[in-house]
Structures are given as structure tokens and as C-alpha cells.
Amino acid sequence: MIRLRLPFAFVVLLSLCLFPFSHEAFAQTCTTGEDLDEPTRSALTNTATSYFGMIAHGDSAGLKQNAIPSLASSFDGVEGTVREDQPVFAGVNPAARTPFLLKLDGQASMDRAEFLCGVFGAKGQTANSAEFIIPNLAPGTYAIAIVDAATSKGPYAVSFVLEKQGVAWKLGGLFVKRTAINGHDAAWFEQQAVAFTAKGQLHNAWFYFFQAREMAVPLSFMSTQFTDKLFDEAHPVKPSDLPDDKTIDLLSGTRTFKVTSIFPLFVGQDFDLVVKYQSADVSNTTQTFQDNTAVMKAVVAKFPEFRDAFDGVVARAVESSGKDYGSLLPMKDIK
Questions:
Q1: Considering the domain boundaries, does residue 243 fall inside one?
Q2: Same domain, yes or no, for 54 and 94?
Q3: DSSP 106
Q4: What is the pLDDT of residues 249-291, one digit of tens each?
Q5: What's this model's pTM, rounded to 2 decimal places?
Q6: 27 and 132 share one domain
Q7: Which of 22, 173, 256, 279 is within CB 3.0–4.6 Å of 6 for a Cys-Cys bond?
Q8: Same domain, 174 and 308
Q9: Alpha helices in the chain, H assignment, sequence order
Q10: For residues 145 and 29, what is the distance between their CA atoms, to the nearest angstrom?
């Protein structure tokens, strides 16, 4: 659902904090909304609209010519994104959101920059605020420009991370995210998570809160009043028997599989559960398919509530080298 093309050293943050300390002490500022002058606002929205048009026309070369050097030197990911999304965005007129103008002063990168944008109240975020936390931000002038695209496959948010070089705004990062699928948006997933919580299906609730958070904001490093609310709701239901920086044992007959991660994912229009586990060798695809099938059956047997929440299960056997082999079964076929 999310494709990020951002050089490791290049990060973006927003800051417009109305707390009683100065921005200068932290050398980081954000200008947005009514405080953003019209020429800058127009330049940023026009740039974002132009770059979206390049995606819609399949013009990877044009994007590369307008990219910062570190991104242009490793552009395969962006080209892949353009190939995938061009048919979806063709003929679409995007709607630009209010952009954010970012500036970090100083002589060295910040290890962990935390920026508060908008008005924060006594209880934290408000309806119009946002928080961004990203490491390793180099001094410079940046912007985040987001456009919304209503497509035949549903709504998308396309975010452009821009860096000012001279008078030009160069592409520094590209994020593409679907904000609703099958008519289901972040609010719907939150409602389902609350319902699962009420039924005592805490694993389902946890994954649906996770999906709500993924759909709630266009950037993974962005939080809002709504995502903070999701965190507060999800924290008490977090299961202790799922992989979390550790493996868990999944028993299938006399075999034990080491599961490294479990997470939800849309596959086409289906909402599936992905289970990754350790494998010594995936080259024998017949045997690996049998192992995958055993893992899918075992995870549903261990957590039968998953039948109420997911359309299918994807099992991926992963070697230590990273090479993997995956299989998918609809939930109705997992006996």
C-alpha cells in the first residue's frame, strides 16, 4: 500500500510550535496555512501538480531530471512506482493540499528531529495540528506537498518531498498511499477495531487499529490528533503472543516454525494476513509450498478469530539471505 522512495540521508519534518520557547533555539521552522506567502504556496502546489502529471504520463525521465542528486543516482524505485501507478493516475486531476515549508538551520544533521506543526493544546494535538519525527535531517530548506487523487481504484494521497536548490524545488522523495479500499477508510477500520475489542478478539482489534493508522495519514512519519487517539485505543489491546522484535514458535504437528512477523496487507481488493517465518532453503518450491500451507493452517488454528477479520492468509518462507517464497490461500480454503 505504501511505496517510499527517499534517500536515507534525506528526511523531512514540519514545525510550527506555539509553545513558549523560540524556534531559533532549535533551528527548525515550518510555515504553512495562512502564514505561507502566496508565491511560495503557488510554487509548491504547482510543482507537486507538475510532478504528479509526470507520473500520470509515465515520464520517469522528467522526474529524474528534477530529482536531487542522491535520489537521481538510485532511481529504480521511483521508476517502478511510476510504472505501477501511471495507469491508475492517467487522466486524473489532483487536488493539492496546503503545503508545508520546512527549514533547518545549522552546520550538522540532527539525529532525531521532532517538529510540532500547528496549535497544540493542554492535552496535546488539536484538529489542525501535526507532528513529524524523522532522523538524520541535514540543514536546508525543504517542503512537503501532498495531492489527493480520486481514481477508479479509490482515493490516493501522493506526497512529494521537495528540496530547494537555487530557485527550483527538486524531488527528494515520493510517497504513494491508498487512503481507502473497497470504500473502507481509516475511520471504518477504527470502528471495526473497537467492535473486535468489545467481542474480546484482541488480535483482530490490534491489526485493524494498525490498518486504521496506516490509512489515516499520507506519510508514515506523520501523526495527528486522530492517530494519537488510535494509539491510545490500541495500546491496551496489544497482544503479547505476536512477533515483536522476536520470533514466536508456531506448532504444526511435530514441526515448529519460527515466525518473524505477522501483519495485515491488502492484496488486490482482499484484506489478507501475512505470516513470515524462517526457512533454511526455499529452492525446493514444492516442499516450501507444503510448509507454507502448514503455516497458514497452524496460524488460523492458533488464532481462529482471524477467520472473522481477513479474506485470506499469505505465508512467506524467508531465508537468512532474504530470499523468500510466498503462497496465498483464501480463508475459506484453510481447513
A1: no
A2: yes
A3: S
A4: 999 999 999 999 999 999 888 999 999 999 999 999 999 999 9
A5: 0.84
A6: yes
A7: 173
A8: no
A9: 38-56, 60-65, 69-72, 76-89, 186-198, 202-216, 225-234, 285-302
A10: 16
Q: Is 200 left (phi over 0), alpha (psi -120 to 50) or beta?
A: left
Residue type, position 39, single letter: P
Residue span of the structural domain in which 218 resides:
186-237
Q: How far apart are the first and last CA of the chain?
A: 29
Cα 293 from Cα 314, distance rounded (Å): 9
Distance CA(329)–CA(312), nearest Å, equals 6
- How far are the Cα atoms of 21, 181, 189, 275 from residue 271, in angstroms, in the given order? 45, 9, 11, 13
Residue 180 corresponds to which cell in the numbers above?
481507502
Together in a domain, 31 and 159: yes
66-103 confidence digits (pLDDT tens): 999 999 999 999 999 999 999 999 999 999 998 988 88
Instruction: Using only the alpha carbons of the chain, give its radius of gyration.
Output: 22
Residues of 320-333 as b/e, b for ≥16 C-beta within 10 angstroms?
eeeeebbbbbebee
Domain assignment present for 270 = yes
| Cβ atoms 149, 158 nearer than 8 A | yes
Give the type of residue at 227: T
Handedness of CA 76, 3, 271, 183 (dihedral sign): negative
Dihedral-angle region of residue 40 (phi above 0 means left; psi in -120 to 50 means alpha; beta otherwise) = alpha
Cα–Cα distance measured from residue 171 to residue 47, given in angstroms and rounded to the nearest whole number = 9
Q: How many domains does the chain have?
A: 3
CA angle at 187 for the pair 41 and 95, rounded to the nearest 5° = 25
* Cβ proximity of 10 and 163 under 8 Å: yes
Q: Are residues 231 and 262 in the same domain?
A: no
